[in-house]
Design goal:
CATH superfamily of the largest domain: FAD/NAD(P)-binding domain
CATH architecture of the largest domain: 3-Layer(bba) Sandwich
Largest sheet: 5 strands, parallel
Number of helices: 10
Radius of gyration: 21 Å
CATH topology of the largest domain: FAD/NAD(P)-binding domain
CATH class of the largest domain: Alpha Beta
Strand order of the largest sheet: 5-2-1-9-20
Distance between the termini: 30 Å
Number of domains: 2
Structural class: alpha/beta
Length: about 375
């Protein structure tokens, strides 16, 4: 008798899990992916809107194409999860599962930062990047603040990538000398989990581009012309915010979330406290050997989804479940002017995470583009 595998969320982790399951199981087993949006945009492409290198809506994957590959796609919202009865309530129906993979990501709590909705532009959504692009086209002088409102947040290099891209846009327009660029963040240094030496690699890049950096600053309020932190006031003409990230409320309601604020999982198998339920990607809270939360990154979510799917396949086939998530990944940190610096890390490394940051290069940016196209072709072609 075939099994029913439900995947809630169609981002990196959910898509990788669905793809692996469908390739590894016979047609008698049903793989269903549920997401409230039909189109998938890889997060890394949103920042390209800032420079006009990508137009809004480009580079999208259509999740309805999954149906052609034997993966049922349902476009709807998940309302409730009942792990005791192995049921999931959707907007218009209730469905059961044998295995459940939760990949619902993180949500943005813009109300958590007073003044954000009124005075700031959201740097982590496509519409926000579109607004910022239009403002940059006419921005001639003043101060632009890139503001991280809380920890943790998705893609730790992203605020810095956005800053480098904005720096390049202003230089191309010939107005950079009239603009002060500033980053304010609660992090003690960039790429915090990798340690201060890795952070210095990035702060050196910021210094070389004449970008002011203010770490260890917790925001209290955003006003029209100033950002107020716990230690002071920072005047601005334009503020671009990375909002506070939170786990979806329905995951709190079903009891999967622990005191960290994220879904508790085994760091190597991504199993949760509920039977036959796994969590991957931004909603999950795997911890490193030293107890730090793993960074939220698409490449890590992809590997988590693949590991979970392979172990489910083994369980269905009566084989040992040997796959383990190792905490290894690579991202391509964009530094503007068509260059990127590959960052490779093992976050589960002992006695501390290990890492390697290559110098920014055009080859690194090309590798980033290949990364994008390979995934889009695999999941949607």
């Amino acid at each position: 008798m075939g099994k029913r595998i439900l995947i809630l969320g169609g981002g990196f982790g959910g898509l990788a899990a669905a793809d692996t399951l469908r390739r590894g199981l016979g047609a008698e087993h049903k793989v269903t992916l549920i997401d409230k949006q039909r189109l998938f945009f890889m997060g890394l492409t949103k920042l390209w809107v800032l420079s006009g290198a990508r137009r809004v809506g480009e580079n999208a994957g259509n999740r309805t194409a999954l149906n052609n590959r034997g993966i049922e796609f349902i476009e709807t919202e998940v309302v409730r999860i009942d792990t005791s009865k192995k049921k999931v309530r959707l907007r218009s129906l209730e469905t059961s599962y044998d295995f459940l993979i939760v990949a619902l990501g993180a949500e943005y709590s813009t109300d958590s930062t007073p003044g954000l909705n009124r005075y700031a532009k959201n740097l982590y959504i496509e519409s926000g990047c579109s607004e910022i692009r239009d403002l940059l086209r006419s921005f001639k002088s003043g101060t632009i603040t890139i503001l991280v409102c809380g920890l943790p947040f998705k893609c730790p290099p992203a605020p810095y990538e956005a800053t480098f891209i904005i720096d390049s846009v202003l230089r191309n327009r010939g107005v950079r000398k009239n603009v002060k660029l500033r980053v304010i963040t609660p992090e003690p240094h960039p790429l915090t989990i990798l340690g201060p030496e890795a952070g210095k690699k990035l702060t050196d890049l910021l210094t070389n581009r004449e970008i002011d950096y203010h770490p260890g600053e917790k925001v209290r309020e955003i006003r029209k012309n100033s950002t107020f932190t716990e230690t002071g006031e920072y005047p601005h003409d334009l503020v671009l915010a990375i909002p506070v990230h939170v786990v979806p409320q329905l995951l709190r309601d079903c009891g999967l979330v622990d005191q960290s604020g994220w879904v508790r999982v085994d760091p190597s198998t991504l199993s949760t406290t509920a039977s036959d339920v796994f969590a991957v990607g931004d909603c999950a809270g795997p911890k490193t050997p030293k107890g730090a939360l793993l960074p939220r990154a698409g490449i890590l979510a992809e590997e988590q989804g693949t590991v979970v799917a392979k172990n489910i396949i083994s369980r269905i086939k009566g084989l040992p479940e040997t796959e383990r998530f190792t905490g290894e990944g690579v991202c391509f940190m964009e530094t503007g002017i068509g260059m990127a610096a590959p960052v490779r890390a093992n976050f589960y490394g002992q006695p501390a995470p290990t890492w390697e940051i290559a110098p920014p290069s055009t080859e690194g940016f090309e590798e980033k583009n290949r990364f994008l196209m390979e995934r889009m072709n695999r999941w949607f072609s």
